[in-house]
Amino acid sequence: MTETAKTPADFWFDPLCPWAWMTSRWMLEVEKVRPVEVRWHVMSLAVLNEPKLDELSEQYQELMKTAWGPVRVCIAAEQKHGSEVLGPLYTALGTRFHNQGLEKNRETIVAALEEAGLPAELADYADSDAYDTELRASHKEGIDLVGQDVGTPVIAVPGPDGEQIAFFGPVVTPAPKGEEAAKLWDGTLMVASIPGFYEIKRTRTVGPIFD
């Protein structure tokens, strides 16, 4: 099947979020078993939580301080080197943050940049607001599709008339593989085809299972 015949799936992520990481690994599996092209975009938990920062626990407020760096590096990489670098960079960052449990510091970010074939000096943007306007615009594009009461990931797929239908999630662990990944994708397209469908949800009883 040609590239133009593939179904687009727009995926907004914050590299800090373990649940977005799980969903992103599912989407990479979907690309193997269905004619799908994932288009990566950044969103920001730090931006999302700005209006209610004072209501969050001290622990989560500290987490939000660390959330700026990785996503700023991602948006700088996209602005300087094109959107096609986001997927490999996200994989390099997420593997280190989530699977390997490494510190979310400059050393880890530099290693991820090098693995993705990007200049190490992009790590300087972790402490820079140079591309915050672009970051906020990318975040807004994703969050406007689903509303302010959700987080990351946001995934947008074609609806019955080709319009974008977006959801938070799916939240899943571990990331499905093979035919299980395909079935979840098919189900996502199915619910997107139903006018007025909004959510299915149950309480999570386990944390992210990285494999």
Secondary structure elements and pairings:
Layout: E1 7-13, H1 18-33, E2 36-42, H2 45-49, H3 58-81, H4 86-99, H5 106-115, H6 132-146, E3 154-158, E4 164-168, H7 178-192
Parallel strand pairs: 1-2
Antiparallel strand pairs: 1-3, 3-4
Helix pairs in contact: 1-7, 3-4, 4-5
Measured on Cα atoms, how large is the radius of gyration?
Answer: 17 Å
Looking across the biggest beta sheet, what order are the strands in?
2-1-3-4
Low-confidence stretches: none
Strand content: 5-15%
How many strands in all? 4
**Coarse morphology:** globular
> Could you say which structural class the secondary elements and strand pairing correspond to?
alpha+beta
Distance between the termini: 30 Å
- Helicity level, as a percent range? 40-55%
- The helix tally amounts to 7
Biggest sheet architecture: 4 strands, mixed
Mean pLDDT: 91
Short key terms for the protein model shown above:
alpha+beta; four-stranded mixed beta sheet; 7 helices; single chain; 211 residues
Describe this entry's structure for a reader.
With about 210 residues, the protein is α+β, with helices and mostly antiparallel strands. It has helices spanning about 20-35, 45-50, 60-80, 85-100, 105-115, 130-145, 180-190, and strands spanning about 5-15, 35-40, 155-160, 165-170. Helix 1 (about 20-35) packs across helix 7 (about 180-190), helix 3 (about 60-80) packs antiparallel against helix 4 and helix 4 crosses helix 5. It is globular and about 45 Å long. About 35% of the residues are buried. The mean pLDDT is about 90. InterPro entries: Rv2466c-like, Thioredoxin-like_sf. This is Protein-disulfide isomerase-like protein with CxxC motif.
